[in-house]
Amino acid sequence: MVQASKSPGPAAESSSRCCAGLEDLLSPRLFKALSDPRRLQLFVRLAGEGCACTVGQLADGSGVDLSVVSRHLAVLREAGVISCEKRGKEVWCTVQTGEVAGILRDLADALDACCPPGAAGEPAAH
User: Fold this and answer.
1) Among 15, 38, 63, 103, which is 20 to 30 Å from 2 by CA?
2) Which residues partner with 85 through β-bridges?
3) pTM exceeding 0.85
4) d(CA 50, CA 70)
5) CA 107 – CA 100 distance, rounded (Å)
């Protein structure tokens, strides 16, 4: 019986070095937060407002109960895509535009560096 080597080959080592930072940018928390259609709808609605909104304002017309909206917003807040601030009895939420844009920009840059167009059989853009 022959035991296969468990050490990665040169191609895998080269790939892991070039894509070393990619895994850090692929946050499961971020993708979980944005993968739910209802949370994505709330995020887009909040972004479209262009200013802070209360949880109640976001719940109005959303078709779901205020407590459900609050739970969805908590997931978005934990992922760092929105911030919430309590003012008196109301909680105001805003999109963290700079942070979200920065994350997506960094991810795009890392993918370009790790997997340039035309690499690994991918057709190059014309």
Assistant:
1) 15
2) 92
3) no
4) 19
5) 11
